Amino acid sequence: MLDSLSYIPHPSTPNAELATHFTDLAPPLNARQAAIESARCLYCYDAPCTRICPSEIDVASFIRNIHDRNVDGAALGILKQNILGGSCARVCPTEILCEDACVRNHDAEGQPVKIALLQRYALDNMSFTEHPFRRARPTGRKIAVVGAGPAGLSCAHRLAMLGNDVVIFEAQDKAGGLNEYGIAKYKLTNDFAQKEVDFLLGIGGIEIRHGQRLGDNLHLKDLHANYDAVFLGIGLGASRALKLTGEDAPGLLAAVDYIAALRQADDLAALPVPERALVIGAGNTAIDMAVQIQRLGAQEVTLVYRRGFDAMSATHHEQEIAKANQVRMVTWAQPQQVLLDGYGRVRGMRFEKTREDGNRLVGTGETFEIAADAVFKAIGQTMADASLADPLATLLQRDGDRIHVDDRFRTALPGIYAGGDCVAPGQDLTVQAVQHGKLAALAIHTDLQATLEAA
């Protein structure tokens, strides 16, 4: 995966010390802190925090349960709506969602209730003696779910709860999707993503088959023929191209590939770490990449974006994380040319300064260069061509590079549903993917029951 960086040296810092750079970004609350923080909640009748939550968690209710020392009740309330609530509490941009909507933001106090940390507290400290969810009576239906990321896992769990049997087909060796392979190591630490998957599978009725890649050794036409319904939670598996000469040169690769290798590494000191790193992009992945390579020991990390800070998709909170980790951020500059050394390897990049002309971004003609030993592109993901390559998959209606679905997550093909990052519209949020999977499961179950009753 990191062959493009094979000539880059490894850190001189030992693994044990590097690991200390990837502890929790936000340390958990203890019981006393959770009690104090939950007491700050006003338990609003028309709680704006609940209304804005993509997964419809009753925020005020679970916080009141924490205040009343009913941690299991709080956890159950969260998990009923969001079975991956533990990871969402760690990675969800609550600063622009529930915490931004908190009424505490609009008084002299100006500090929202720490909803994410309270949600994490509830789920980290729950102590159920048995799995909190039980399956309904068997329906005799079997559904195929493609992709064991947040959307697919959420869909599978809800379908299983409703009495259906589910087989998840996953390309990778581990389930979890971006939670396992794509989130900054300091946000989801240790093996939390796998523990959450194991808990989810405790409902029963869900089988995961690994090494199954749609368009390769797995075909939609076969799934459609052999299962009562199919849910596609395939995400966006390919990185967008810069479309520059030299993009395939050693030293230039997708940020998501490096992040995946970092998250799976047993020895952080064995990773290639450039002395000077360039990150191209403006989203959370770009921030995650820049901060992590800095924490691994890169001496100079520069993030470059073609527009201004206000246009970055990474939240202000994420931008502040980058600044706190000494990441240099350069705006109003777009890649123009990959610069190579005498061996054909990356030595930097030439950029053209940009400006806005009305609603259009235009180049100014002025250029500058930034030296780098490696360049990581984080300019967005797109659908992998092979994913929807079989004859049946080509009939799926697309909105750009995403699958078109109706308001019940049905695709243009009867019996085939989709959700998560692979559908339009989407916010590319873990919490939204979980909600898509949950709602799609309800739609699949309802449609199958209606078919049964009609027969």
From TrEMBL:
The protein's name in its UniProt record: dihydrouracil dehydrogenase (NAD(+))
Catalyzed reactions: 5,6-dihydrouracil + NAD(+) = uracil + NADH + H(+); 5,6-dihydrothymine + NAD(+) = thymine + NADH + H(+)
Function: Involved in pyrimidine base degradation. Catalyzes physiologically the reduction of uracil to 5,6-dihydrouracil (DHU) by using NADH as a specific cosubstrate. It also catalyzes the reverse reaction and the reduction of thymine to 5,6-dihydrothymine (DHT).
Domain of life assignment: Bacteria
Record InterPro entries: 4Fe4S_Fe-S-bd, DPD_II, FAD/NAD-bd_sf, FAD/NAD-binding_dom, Helical_ferredxn
A Pfam match: Fer4_20
GO molecular-function terms, A-Z: dihydropyrimidine dehydrogenase (NAD+) activity; iron-sulfur cluster binding
Oligomeric and partner information: Heterotetramer of 2 PreA and 2 PreT subunits.
SUPFAM superfamilies named among the record's database cross-references: alpha-helical ferredoxin, Nucleotide-binding domain
EC number(s) from the headed UniProt entry: 1.3.1.1
Keyword match Flavoprotein: yes
EC category name: oxidoreductase
PROSITE patterns associated with the record: 4FE4S_FER_2
Domain 4Fe-4S ferredoxin-type: 32-65
This protein's UniProt keywords: Flavoprotein, FMN, Oxidoreductase
Gene3D superfamilies: Alpha-helical ferredoxin, FAD/NAD(P)-binding domain
Cofactor dependence: FMN
